[in-house]
Amino acid sequence: MSTETKKRTVKTINIDADKCNGCRACEVICSSFHAAPRYSSNNPARSRVRVVRDPLRDIYIPLYAGDYTESECMGRDKFIIDGKEYDECGFCRTSCPSRDLFREPDSGLPLKCDLCDGEPEPLCVKWCLVGALSVTEREVEEPAEETKRGELEIGLESLARRFGADKLLDTVAQITKGR
Amino acid sequence: MRYAETGYVLEVDLTKGNIERVATDPRDTELYLGGLGTNAKMLWDRVPADVEPFSPDNLLIFAAGLLCGTPATGCNRTIVSTISPQTRLMAFSMMGGFWAPELKYAGYDKVVLRGKSKDLVYLYINNDKVEIRDASHLKGKGAIETAEIIKKELNEPRAQVAAIGLAGENRVFYASIEQGRSSASRGGIGAVMGDKGVKAVVVRGTKDIVVAKPQEYMDLCSEVLDYIKHREDNPIPDVMPILAGLGSPQEMKVHDEKWHTENFNWGNARTRRKDFWTEEVDHAWAKTMEKARTRLISCYNCPMKCGATISMEGLPTYMMKCFTKLTYTMAAFSDLDFGLRIAQKATEYGLDGFSAPQVMAFAMELLEKGILKDSDFPGLPEDNEGKFFYLLDMIVNRQGIGDILANGTYWAAREIGNGAEEFAHNNIKKHEQLPLKLSMLNPIYYLMYCTGEKINITQIEGQFPQAPYPTVEQREAFVKDWVQVPDDKFKDIFLQWEPRGEKSMPNFPTVDMCCDIVDWQEMMHYIDDALGQCAGLSSFPLKPPYHIHNYPKFISAGAGIDMDKDKLMKAAKRYRTLVRANNIRRGMRRVDEQPPANHWKNRFPELEKNLLDSYYQLKGWNEDGIPTKETLEDLGLGYVAAEFERTGVYGGGSAEPASAPRQQETLNVGGVQP
């Protein structure tokens, strides 16, 4: 096994929800930046950051679009913090069939935050003058990727990711049994 | 292709239950911009002088400004226009919040309500799907409560709701339209909404707003953001804290209320308490505010935190901005705790925070003087605060004396008679004003009070410092980075202006200088109201990020209309004149253009006449305040001149000034007499 490591930059958006004023400037600039051509239009419904905002309950959570999932979780979660009850799955970043968050409003295609690739800093951070959003970077060391994998390995891995390892094993077992 | 705007308005006929999506003429955008500008045009075209405020033919227009929904910081205002039941003139109250951008994203620039619904309804706009829905279950509900119920029943937490409370339903003449942290309060437009049987207008939109020149527009937006940061880091020196920064006066943030409590008047705008602000009061009020305030909050796409969520023990949470913090407190000679408690109730009822407290103080004064009797107030509580809560309920329910008071001090005084008129002493054009009573005439403010058709001084003033700086060095430092002036002459005026001596008020700034200053101040507010820009980042504060030099660029790059400074100034003058034209044909004349008689102790009739004459002349209005035929034609408003000629407005034929008593509500006040 290889002992070599390589460095990778991890970017973290720090969300200080206590400082959020609920103005949604982050949504405005995000949807504008990701419009094609760039800045040609804006539409918060297309934004990859959304402020979950309920002033009467004092709830302000800027939430970033994470990965897409095909199926929702088996159960859901609901947080109560300091007496404040947050929405179901209120802190989840996933673009999920259980809700319309983080999907293109017309096509339904999933959205994912890319930290404004190519810009010196994510624009939501730049536009958040109240300081609720900031970004930090750090280097992490990770084991270097091992030797190049073959087609079969890659194929099996993607099947396992899609259907789950158990299901894959079962299927392989069934197929080979039939032979 | 339409840029920045959607090019569509939603026409809703409440009588028939008919809804139409109507394309607008892009030429109108070029001439009148949008928001207030195109509202004024619509009212001119469709609401003739004989239409009563509570007629089904009166329109209630909710407009998003031209640049609302684009990334321009702070551009979020809804301009609501109609004919006011109180002033019987054109009302155009504005609200910030989140409603206007949402309307744009739904695909509309305006919602135009006409007719009347038999039953209480609400309008639900969800992109292309628009419904008139039953609101019988919302009857009598609070404005904020209504918004919460509707969002829940639609399962649409992101919908924006503009709603009326009981005051609007009962057509109180100073009823507001409430929208979360914002409200359109002046002129009684909530009463018109109630009269039309509309409890709420609910919007949800998920479409794009497109700008004409993307990179250029974004660069302009970035410059504005950078400038806001610069101004936050560099407050204006030598002015009181509320004038040093940007945004609305930071009433929710600032605890020190010495200036307001000692300079504004208490009760029925009578009593000045020069030694009110003691350390003890400071301490107690700060404690009240700290405890009540959950968070400082903003409107859509704006970093200024002018509002706050307020939670008083035992009461539902509500949101507040600005000066309502003190109006109830000062009207009742009470404290901040009372003020914040009664404001909670008044916000749910949907009432203008300027007029309502003053009407109540007026009623108490009439009782004190014996003009109203104890028998007019059955069951009046003994304690002072209790009396105000009692009056609030009576007014909103139009019960007993409350039915008369619900029409505001001007109309109530006429109905009560017996000398009550003298107590309705703080009105302009029949509308209650801020409780300010000062000594030396301020000619700049004189002009603004007289000629302001926005009815509220805070929506006319701004840009130019309210007082001169004592030293030349201070003045030189101030003008050094004063890029917002339309012309360098304003710097010269400020440099010469002295606190006392020859070059001090009321003689300096000179009459002509005052006219120029007021013209600039007013113009910037009118531009804001067409674009949907909040005055707090533009026309109100000193040295704002938006001004006459970058606005044309915003319009060019945003809306794709070729615009320069002169063309913009002319457009603003065009629809400003059209607002006046709407009011002129409803009977407004020079005689209506005066501040409350006791606003200043030291008056100068000759100077005042000179000021008004000169200002009218600068504006292109005749000596009676009517835009001349030449002015109108030069602005492309020949159709207004034609109607003025046809109806005899120029011949003095309109005659009846708007301040004259009206025996019946149906009286035609347009200029139709020979």
Automatic annotation (TrEMBL), chain A:
<dbReference type="InterPro" id="IPR017896">
    <property type="entry name" value="4Fe4S_Fe-S-bd"/>
</dbReference>
<feature type="domain" description="4Fe-4S ferredoxin-type">
    <location>
        <begin position="77"/>
        <end position="106"/>
    </location>
</feature>
<protein>
    <submittedName>
        <fullName>(4Fe-4S)-binding protein</fullName>
    </submittedName>
</protein>
<dbReference type="Pfam" id="PF12837">
    <property type="entry name" value="Fer4_6"/>
</dbReference>
<feature type="domain" description="4Fe-4S ferredoxin-type">
    <location>
        <begin position="11"/>
        <end position="42"/>
    </location>
</feature>
TrEMBL record, chain B:
<comment type="similarity">
    <text>Belongs to the AOR/FOR family.</text>
</comment>
<keyword id="KW-0479">Metal-binding</keyword>
<dbReference type="InterPro" id="IPR013984">
    <property type="entry name" value="Ald_Fedxn_OxRdtase_dom2"/>
</dbReference>
<dbReference type="InterPro" id="IPR036503">
    <property type="entry name" value="Ald_Fedxn_OxRdtase_N_sf"/>
</dbReference>
<feature type="region of interest" description="Disordered">
    <location>
        <begin position="651"/>
        <end position="674"/>
    </location>
</feature>
<dbReference type="InterPro" id="IPR013983">
    <property type="entry name" value="Ald_Fedxn_OxRdtase_N"/>
</dbReference>
<keyword id="KW-0408">Iron</keyword>
<feature type="domain" description="Aldehyde ferredoxin oxidoreductase N-terminal">
    <location>
        <begin position="6"/>
        <end position="207"/>
    </location>
</feature>
<dbReference type="Pfam" id="PF02730">
    <property type="entry name" value="AFOR_N"/>
</dbReference>
<protein>
    <submittedName>
        <fullName>Aldehyde dehydrogenase</fullName>
    </submittedName>
</protein>
<dbReference type="Pfam" id="PF01314">
    <property type="entry name" value="AFOR_C"/>
</dbReference>
<keyword id="KW-0560">Oxidoreductase</keyword>
<keyword id="KW-0004">4Fe-4S</keyword>
<dbReference type="InterPro" id="IPR013985">
    <property type="entry name" value="Ald_Fedxn_OxRdtase_dom3"/>
</dbReference>
<keyword id="KW-0411">Iron-sulfur</keyword>
<dbReference type="InterPro" id="IPR001203">
    <property type="entry name" value="OxRdtase_Ald_Fedxn_C"/>
</dbReference>
<dbReference type="InterPro" id="IPR036021">
    <property type="entry name" value="Tungsten_al_ferr_oxy-like_C"/>
</dbReference>
<dbReference type="InterPro" id="IPR051919">
    <property type="entry name" value="W-dependent_AOR"/>
</dbReference>
